[in-house]
Amino acid sequence: MKRLRVVVLILGVLALTLLAWNVLRAPYPQATWLSVEAPAVAVMNRPLQLRITLPSPSDAGMLMADLHGSADRHEPMGYLNHSSPHLVTPEGGVFTFDIPIPVRPDLKHVRAIIYLGPTERWADRLKVVATDEIPVKPTGASKTATSWKNLQAHESVPDPEIRFHEAAWARPLIAALWVLAGLLAARGELLRVTHSEAIPQRISGRRFGLALALACLAAAVFEISGVELNLAAQLRAYAQDNRLYHDRRWLQQGATLLALGGSATLGWVALWRTHSPARSLALLGLGLFAAFSAARLFSLHEVDQILARQMGPLSLAQFAQLASVLIVVIALWPRKSSEPGPSAPGLPKDS
Predict the structure, then answer these.
(1) What is the pTM of this model?
(2) CA nearest 252: which of 306, 294, 305?
(3) Could you state, in order of their start, the residue ranges of all structural domains in the chain?
(4) Over the stretch 23-43, which tens digit does the pLDDT of each residue have?
(5) Would you say 44 and 138 are in contact if contact means Cβ atoms under 8 Å apart?
(6) Which CATH number fits domain 36-155: 2.60.40.1930, 3.10.450.50, 3.40.50.1970, 2.20.140.10?
(7) pLDDT tens for residues 256-314?
(8) DSSP per residue over 216-248, as a string?
(9) How far apart (Å, rounded) are the C-alpha atoms in residues 33 and 54?
């Protein structure tokens, strides 16, 4: 039975990881007014063929497709080329664009910017989407036909700046509560052992209490110093200085998944490896705090949109961090013991 529960837990974590990965890889709203197909690989000095399908009914107008490129590390190169427009009727239809790919030594990927409007002019556009990037091979690449694939097409809008409203009193309060939690853990009120337990179990419990106390004090330092904000700014500046900024999404997505994995590991330890409800509750609180702090640190746009929502005077991020430390304090708060006296004479009483 225990093995079955472990297997179910592992499968659940894998399913959650796959779901999170797919959500993070396709964060922008996908366009519903068209679908786009293209070859899996493009070749320089040859036309890139796009097959665009507009369902019926559709907005009438002129459909245009421009080609944009990017260099190493997905650094944008801007506009490359375009093809002739197509007239769209309310019945929709399938439209084929052949866009020549110029010879550029630094060109590594191309993407299509597709727009619909009453005229061919960019200024008159009514709907705009940007497709996935397609890798580009040099001119001498094999002429073997490559497979086609469906390209994701999302609304081409820049990420707006997301501002967090932080209550001035929240950080000192959260840090003070973490210090209190650390003192409670160090005092050993959570991990008192009965007189009937063996000495190695007592030692193990006290080590756990010391580790928990250190983790709580580290959380206090982390919170009062605002490490996640300062470190996020430094990482952003480093990415801009080293031409990594335009490829930052992959780094942010991977780091977010690692943080989720670490928090899930704490949750697993809390639920499956501890035999004390108070211990489990304290570890779950620590895992919750770590997850939300890591989310602020890696600053993925779609996650920030959620965390910046207001819940009374606090943002959702600060509310969750305050709730997590309160969970730990409640779990560690000393309670009157209802345990009977020592059942094994000869064992010394705990101090």
Answers:
(1) 0.56
(2) 294
(3) 36-155, 170-332
(4) 555 556 678 899 999 999 999
(5) yes
(6) 2.60.40.1930
(7) 667 667 766 766 666 665 667 777 888 888 888 988 888 777 776 667 778 888 888 88
(8) HHHHHHHHHHTHHHHHHHHHHHHHHHTT-GGGH
(9) 6
